[in-house]
Amino acid sequence: MWFTSSYSNGAGGECVECALIEDGALVRDTKVAEAHVISVGCDAWRSFLQTLKCGGAPG
């Protein structure tokens, strides 16, 4: 089941949807749901979330 990121503002800005799967997560652009979906493994997803929780910005 897809859910919208809490960082998405709903005003047409950067909107991301995620879906948790057995071995990680799927990520897609909310505005273009039929576009490409990125598959992220468990370790990478966990690291990404931990970085956000610690106040870091990925990239």
Can you offer a commentary on this structure?
The radius of gyration is 12 Å and the shape is flat. It is an alpha+beta fold. The protein contains 1 helix and 4 strands, in the order ββββα. A hairpin with an 8-residue loop joins β3 (24-29) and β4 (38-41). It has one domain. It has a 4-stranded antiparallel sheet.
Counting copies of identical and different chains, the oligomeric state is single chain
Give the spatial strand order of the biggest sheet. 1-2-3-4
Could you say how many structural domains there are in total? 1
Instruction: Give the end-to-end Cα distance, rounded to a whole number of Å.
Output: 27 Å
H/E element sequence: EEEEH
Mean pLDDT: 82
| Strand percentage | 25-35%
> Judging from the principal axes of the Cα atoms, what is the shape?
flat
Please give the share of residues in helix. 10-25%
Radius of gyration: 12 Å
Present the secondary structure layout.
Layout lengths: L2 E2 L11 E6 L2 E6 L8 E4 H12 L6
Antiparallel strand pairs: 1-2, 2-3, 3-4
Write a short abstract of this structure.
Helices cover 20% and strands 31% of the residues. It is an alpha+beta fold and 59 residues long.
Q: What tags apply to this protein structure?
A:
single chain; 59 residues; alpha+beta; four-stranded antiparallel beta sheet; 1 helix; 4 strands; 31% strand; flat
